[in-house]
Amino acid sequence: MDGYQDGRLRARWRRATRLLAAAAGLTIGSAALTAALTVGTAAASVAPAQDATLAAPAVSTVTTGGAHTCAIRADGGLWCWGANYSGQLGDGTTTGRGAPARVGAASWAAVDAGASHTCAVRTDGTLWCWGANSRGQLGDGSTTRRPAPTQVGTATTWARVSAGYEHTCAVRTDGTLWCWGFNRTSQLGVGASPYVATTPLQVGTATNWASVTTGFAHTCGLRSDGTLWCWGYSSDGQLGLGTLGSQTTPAQVGTATTWTGVTAGYVHTCGVRSGTLWCWGENGYGQLGVSGSYQTAPVQVDAATTWSGVGGSGDTSCALRTDGSLWCWGKNSAGQVGDGTTSHRNAPTRVGTATDWTGGPAAAEHSCAIRAGGGLWCWGDNSGGQLSDGSTAPRSTPAQVTLPV
Predict the structure, then answer these.
(1) Along the 405 residues of the chain, how does pLDDT read in single tens digits?
(2) By the 8 A CB rule, do 284 and 346 touch?
(3) Cα separation values, 237 from 296, 331, 362, Å
């Protein structure tokens, strides 16, 4: 399809990401990073992460956008930082921030960062979005950019939300699924039209949706019966249906009924079922966790049966094991794999030696995850100040982020 074929699809999102630093008035250091595809499962030797017991407000949720980060503290406060050229930090400005800034005074339950917009659910069940809105991805009935949270409709039954590149999807407490924004490749799951939806549209009539994840031009969701469904564009097999092309409405991925987690990257997808890890789609950076080219159906990533969760919205994926260890793989040009190098990895590579990782993980051009006690750690690209370490230099190992008291 014109404008979305193979490399063009990937380049469009990456070009947007590369513009973030300029738009925010920030620059990266001039030193070039060397990227080399590394084959094999051996993890590079890295120094152990700092002690997560350092005094800091506990974090319960973290999400990484194109060049911004948002986190919910255990007390329900929402904080965002990094690039803000479209108002994606929600502080009412378009000024980039190298340190966490609180988003209003409300109490929040869930948040997800897209390429340049953010959406979150409050504890009262209302849904709010802010940032870029050229394709109606904020769901407020307009295409006007919003630098502060704007409520999506009047419903008070929203449970979970996922913000993609230019579309958004969310699940309500009644198990219904709703999507809005750009629909050029049928990523909304409601058919080939409308081209743009500025307000939420219900996806089918099913009432057993448990979660949803949005990629660049595709979407996947889990139902409460353990089945996995995907739709949208499949330039490289990212729908997992065994074919290339578009799928206008949700289609089941295989016949398994034991899926427990799924995450949509740029043009690949990974999921967990019965403790095993599976990925499919594009594999140019090794983001499938296996060697070789793209895969149109799920392929198992190593033989471990102790995977508990997976995350990743870019060309990098990260996953947790039940022993508390954290593993990442795929694109690593900014150190977002967290292994102390900038070499791409085509197999899960352990991040340090810590065994107390409990939350997240979130991975894009930068990555973040939570350790026991609520300590937040981030690494990778820092062009917008999204690592909150006082600089705009990338980091190839985790560093703790402390939210204000």
Answers:
(1) 333 333 434 444 444 443 333 333 333 232 222 233 232 333 333 333 344 344 578 999 999 999 999 999 999 999 999 999 999 999 999 999 999 999 999 999 999 999 999 999 999 999 999 999 999 999 999 999 999 999 999 999 999 999 999 999 999 999 999 999 999 999 999 999 999 999 999 999 999 999 999 999 999 999 999 999 999 999 999 999 999 999 999 999 999 999 999 999 999 999 999 999 999 999 999 999 999 999 999 999 999 999 999 999 999 999 999 999 999 999 999 999 999 999 999 999 999 999 999 999 999 999 999 999 999 999 999 999 999 999 999 999 999 999 998
(2) no
(3) 4, 18, 22
CA distances to 201, 238, 286, 295 from 244, in Å = 26, 8, 19, 10
Q: What is the pTM of this model?
A: 0.88
Provide CB contacts within 8 A for 42, sequence distance 6+: none
Q: CB–CB of 308/320 below 8 Å?
A: yes
CATH top-level class for 59-401? mainly beta
DSSP strand pairing (276-281 vs 295-300)? antiparallel
Looking at beta carbons, which pairs linking 137-142 to residues 24 or more positions away fall under 8 Å?
137/163, 137/164, 137/166, 137/167, 137/168, 137/180, 137/181, 137/182, 138/168, 139/168, 139/180, 139/181, 139/198, 139/199, 139/200, 140/198, 140/199, 141/198, 141/199, 142/198
CB neighbours of 251 closer than 8 A, spacing ≥ 6? 229, 230, 231, 239, 241
The number of residues making up the chain comes to 405
**Cα→Cα distances 64→32, 117, 379, Å:** 23, 11, 11
Distance between CA atoms of residues 182 and 20, nearest Å: 21
In the chain, the N- to C-terminal Cα span, in Å, equals 49
Per-domain boundaries in the chain: 59-401
Joined tokens for residue 6: 């193979």
